[in-house]
Amino acid sequence: MPKRRYERREPTHDWQQINPLLKDTAQFNYEVIRPVVLWGQTPKERGAETGVSPRTIYYRANLFDQAGMASLLPAEPPPPVPKVDRRSLPPDIRQEIIDLHAQYPSFHPHEIATICFVKFNRKPAPATIKLIIASGPKPTTTERRYPRYSEIEDGGVRRRIIIRLHVDGWNAKSIAEYLDVSRKTVHAILRRFAEEQFAGMPDKSHARKQPRKVDISTIQEIKKLSENPDIGAYRVSAALEQMGIKLSRSTCGRYLSINRKLYHLQVPRKPRPKADMPFRAERRHQYWSVDIRYLDMHRLGGGMVYCISVLENFSRSILASAISRKQDNEAFFAVMYDAIRHFGVPEVLVSDNGTIFTSHNTRWMCEQLGIEKKEIKKGRPYQNYIEAAFGVQRRMADWSFEKAQTWEDLTSAHDKWMKDYNFQKHLAHEKRDDGCHSPAAVLQWIKGVQPEPELVYMAFSAMCETRRLNKAGYARFRNFLLYGERNLAGETVQVDIFQDVLTLDYNQERLSRYSVEWAPDDRHFTRVGYPRLYDHRYQSTQLELWQPGEVEWFVIIRDEPKSRRRRRRGHILVIQPPLFSDGTQG
């Protein structure tokens, strides 16, 4: 059984038995007044029992009624009076440090110490300043002492504020950052005050101190000369120099303009004739313009690079465009074929007098497709609407063309320019009321005349090379056997080459595509690779003979050139060829 903490005793009201058991002063005082407060015993009777003065018992009972148990506790001692240390800063200096930091938090401690020394002739240590800022009183104000330099309208007040802060101990850097002004301006005002004192505070005139060349008499002479509407600034300067007055041509031109505007002297201007634009379109796909631009700013090496583009004159939209290493018929026809395949054919095709655009193949293609071929007049490139588009390309994309490191970078920059040009607003469509301000919005979905696919194929196949597929479906082209489709054995396919891409087409259906590497002579291939076979309606129902991972081995076969047989010498037989009645030869 645990030991009792307190000894058990019989309860009693006898003071003689209770008094020895009391251990605390508050407990003693409570036991003295308890019968008086609880049971109404008089202080005189309780004083006779306890030996305490009745007056004291009465006073303590009144305190208990007012303050409760707190009246029994001893009074708290007064706080100790701090000793005054001469090394501690006075309250006004402490408050000044806090206010300076609130005004400009970027103050360094040594700058605040300098300001305190100027104002109180006492320079606190930087460590003391840091301690006061961290644990000091609150600032007396949070508003700026002075507004910013730009917010003060009077120049004299601005300069006085800078001088006032400098006198208070602020350095030039703190003044400049506090007033949001340059340090150059602060130093100039301080130098001005050092030289001129308060006389240099107001604003000064910035007019030139040198004597003016143009006086009233000179102005009168210019006014007389300006009455001639055909005279110019140079003639006025020469006439004044003859009179002994030397004025520059620009000064004479300025006063000529002032006099003619002031006295309403109209200068006759000959109206400039508008440039003739014979190919201004009145409807979509009425005129197409084509041209080639030299991209000589590239850094890829390997010779010149060309941009071949086709533009629709009414909407100013680029229908087709490509980057090419060559400017020949094959490159031009590839771009033209792309434009016709997506947008039909125009009524008129406009170009300059370049050899590619005036060749027999180009005219034959236009004749087959029902396109009228026209050329601009020599020496008037502005008649070709695509010249303006090339000017836009120069401003939008030449910077990207110059930064291109690879051919892929150059083509991607070209594709981005073509998209941005077609979908950004165009100056020619700014005044349209239908809300269509970009070339793509003006062109919309409207296309030109859609020719028959067989007609398009015939028009372009005459200028492309053709090959006949062998029994296995391969076409022999420049010492390579390229797979087309074995189900079309014996049929003639079209071989299209554009830059480094070779495709086999049959009746407007693409059979396969290959990447080629050209030999230095630009006629033969050094390698053909990366084949891609397309799904088309002429595919064979038989299963493929090759596995998916062995496609290149079977699709592309290197073929050695056939050796020429040595011709035998024979007798020369002269035969008179027949004459054709229709004037053609077989």
Automatic annotation (TrEMBL):
InterPro entries membership: ArsR-like_HTH, Homeodomain-like_sf, Integrase_cat-core, RNaseH-like_sf, RNaseH_sf, WH-like_DNA-bd_sf
Superkingdom assignment: Bacteria
Any single biological process term in GO: DNA integration
Xref: Pfam families: HTH_32, rve
MF terms in GO: nucleic acid binding
Gene3D superfamilies: Ribonuclease H-like superfamily/Ribonuclease H, Winged helix-like DNA-binding domain superfamily/Winged helix DNA-binding domain
Residue ranges occupied by any Integrase catalytic domain in the UniProt entry: 274-447
Protein name (database record): Integrase catalytic domain-containing protein
Phylogenetic lineage: Bacteria, Bacillati, Chloroflexota, Ktedonobacteria, Ktedonobacterales
